[in-house]
Amino acid sequence: MRGLTYRAALAGIAGVMLLALAVPAAQGQADLIGAAKREGRVVVYGSMESDVFAVIQKIFEGQYGIPVDYFRASSNGVMDRVLTESRAGKPLYDAVLTNRSPMMILKTQGVFGRYVSPSYGSYPSATRDPDDVLSPSYRQVVVSILYNTRLVKAEDAPKSLADLLDPKWKGKIVMPDPNVHTTTAVWLANLEPVMGAQYRPFVERLAGQVTLVESFLPVVQKVIVGEFPLGITYVKYVYIFGSEGAPLDYVRLSPLLAEAHHVALSAKAPHPNAARLFVDVFTSRLGLLALAKAGEFVLVPGVYPPIKDAEKLRIVLMDDLSEQELKQFRDQVGTLFLKR
Amino acid sequence: MVVAAAGIGIILAFLALYPTAMLFYGSVSDAPLGVPGHLTLAHYRAAYGDPNTYRMIGNSFVFAAGAAAISLVVAGLLAWITVRTDAPGRALFELVAVVPNVLPPLLTATAWVLLLSPRIGLINVVARRVGLPPFNVYSMPGMIFVEGLILAPLAYLIISAALRSMDPSLEEAARIAGSHPLQAARRVTTPMIRPALLAAGLLNFVRALESFDTPSIIAIPARIEVFTTKVAREALTAYPPNHNLAATYAMSLLGIAMVLVYVYRRLTARTERFVTISGRGYRPHAIELGPWQYVASAGAILLLALIVLLPFCVLLLTSLLPFYSVPTWETVRQLTLKHYAFLLTSDRVARALRISTMLAVAGATLGMLLASAVACLTVRTRVAGRGALELLTFIPWAFPGTALAIGLLWGYVRLPVPIYATVWILLIAYVTRFLPYGLRAMTSTMVQVHTDLEEVSRVCGAGLLHTFRRVLFPLLRPGFMAGWTILATIFMREFSTSLFLYTPRSEPVGPLLYHLWIDGLHGRMAALGVVVSLVSVVLVAGARRASRTQLAD
To answer: What is the membrane topology noted in the UniProt record heading this document (chain B) (predicted)?
Structure first.
């Protein structure tokens, strides 16, 4: 009996405490929503595919009725636009979302403001930015070998990166040019610790095996139409284009390297409250579940994109490259890919 | 007259020199634009201290010269057949010849890869069946071929306008003197339209030098370095992007283009030589080919197949399939209209079409009015500094679209007038960049019209304005409409300059097509390409109709 009372009392105290905590929080939230609505819109610059972004956009607009203007470009294009507008003193963006490396550059350039969304609390602490500028990683883009299932049977597909060097694949692999495409450069550079002594001979021979294009999307397009049976690109395309009927599968490399994506607020956001509200929704569990459903890898335990074997993959986040490291990479490794 | 010249001069100088000055400053500053810095020549040293730069320049010149030459041959033949002969179906051919100008080069280049890729290219698949070796599009000849075909429609518009304004009595004289029609075409027609041929060749040469679409799709896989791929690699995809170096390369292109404009002016300096419309009775008259007319039609169809029909069919097929693949019987069962359904339901598409149609109509009209005024001043008057006027229009056009956009961005973002991030900056950018196309169409027609017609009108008591409206303008209308058509079709789908200057709320068709492309949504992109082509054909047909009705008046 006593125990029951004790438990009831504890529950009561907890309830009051929750209420006490919840009231100001709810009040703060109501203020934020009101202010956001008065601002009338939110402007987001990002490199997320428009169709995937539309999923979050729909949730946000449906919940608050605040329209989202989305400027989509390559990660480099986003970085360029943000820097240009900031230097000109006319930043028109409220929030920016793209790959880790360009986000780190933008952070050091001081274009972002600090913000800790209430939803960041549920992320692993290791993924939090100690400076409270970048969000924790809201998605990870995983890179692997994709192949056209009409041209390559699963048993004939390469099993490892080293298999790409087999003479039978010469001229049949397409990948982005690491001299033009930053994420590919980051991916190649991150292979070094994975491959150890095998790394240099591997990249030297790989450069002679492959045909280069501008970025990951032309790669998957060329694999889908059958121009090249194999391509190095994002695993999520297996779902995004596969669900529309594209003949695609991927090689289950171990480990698979992935680049983290982050979102951050502008230091001089024209619609600061709407921007905070947007980041709250974007990084919330609801937002992440919607992203996962659209084919993205997210950091929610037990939640996977609808890609075969997604739950079995060993995914390792890549280190970003600094300006200096990227230059060094292009001089030492990139030049291998320029030779005819 | 002097006041008018001064006014136009000031407008042109502002449009051309303001962004140029920004780019020049960027090329000699050690800090990104907008950040205070010191003067330096380091970017020039970085660009020209690299021995690879010189091989790249060689590649670029081979590529641009080859593409310009192909465009002239294709366009010249097609223009002669459609304008100067009685080949059946020529009215239809003329309309079809405008379509490729409407297709974004990115789409055309993608379509040619699907036609000529070594493994899956449709033409190569057929070639292998009949035992011919496949043609590898990923090569210098492949690049030249595709770019030449992409540039042909522009040359066609300029050359056909000149042919239409030509006095055919000289050709008749050649015929009477015993020349075969082809001989007459070579010996009489070609020299008479030389200003137009030179203009088209020059414009296309520089356009090929600065084009990024074909190189990004063909040169990167072929590992051939040209100007624009080097700029992309070293400046635009550098980390973070280096606009100063991009500006430095842009300055070099400006230098090359200025030399070419100078050569062009030297070659066409004695304009009197090319005057062919005079008071001596001017009536266009088609050359009768007799039985050869069907051969001519077949030739025109073959040329049109290269510049329009084949790439358009690939585009159409892509727009009707979930994913493009080499067509088989299986393909027929996969046909779908879902990409078109997307276009119908998307607000973004509707808005982009609205914005681009507005930019095409308003921009082309504004551009041609300005071009007519400049052409009038440079060809018809002896106002001091008229040569400089023409040179001014060429400056912004000599930059690659991306570089000009950087200059414009930095120029207009600082003005106290709220132009940045609106459709107006796009309108200004389009007119600034593409004015030379309008001007070429206008001047090469204007130099052909002898001043005696105006003098007669003036002697009869008509004022300057009246003379322009009643005498000069009707004679120049082919040139005006050709220029308008070029500008409207380019503005309908321009993307390389727009990409830097648009915002999500003022997104025109070009960036939208590009985004569908980078999102991998090729079906939707192709469907939008098909729709934009149709909208542009309606625009062009409307313009033709208007021009004919006025002529009848």
So the answer is: Multi-pass membrane protein
